[in-house]
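Much of what follows relies on a compact textual record of a protein's fold. A complete example follows; check for yourself that the lines match position by position.
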Amino acid sequence: MGESRTELLAWLNDLLQVNYTKVEQCGTGGAYCQIMDSIFGDVPMSRVKMNAKHEYEFIANFKILQNTFRQHKIEKPIPVEKLVKCKMQDNLEFLQWIKRFWDTNYGGQGYDPVARRRGAPTDTPATIAPLAPSRGSAGSLHAGGSRAAIQNLQAQLREMNVHLEGLEKERDFYFAKLRDIEILVQQQLEVLQAEDKDDPVLRDIQKILYSTEEGFEVPDQPVDEEETF
């Protein structure tokens, strides 16, 4: 039988130096990421949003968790779609599993959770699901509640757009770097080939640059716009 919610929260709060009051708060993904970091010490905590408020932020945290599982060959499936809904039962079951995994794999080394997350705030929503108004006040609050809901959605949309813009800039930055490396490697290999030589390291780098993940298909190359005129 798994540990109770009270026991799990006490362990979680002590390990990560947070103040979670409900198991549902783990659905943001940040706590799961840092639990794994306490074991392996290589989770990119600077990219984990410990005070995530929106579902797209939760999903971004779980992508980091999935990468950690893949890196360490952990075969446990992560039910992301269920966990990000911040329901108690789903997160309780996953937290119980991750606690058992921690008990088995944590080496007892010292761990400073605040330093690892660079002091980032951890104030996740105490509850994710909005509370329904009482029946008596529903009519009087309907109009105001609708306006507030629209304003909240608009704010979330603006935040998502800013977040997306940042991701696109980061993607373009790293793509440009990889492209420069690709050109440099190709040029050097051509020079070596002309001299009837080879470099295994450059070949390995080129192999990494051209490798794809399982299930990924390289998109068709678009027609050069200059050729259409």
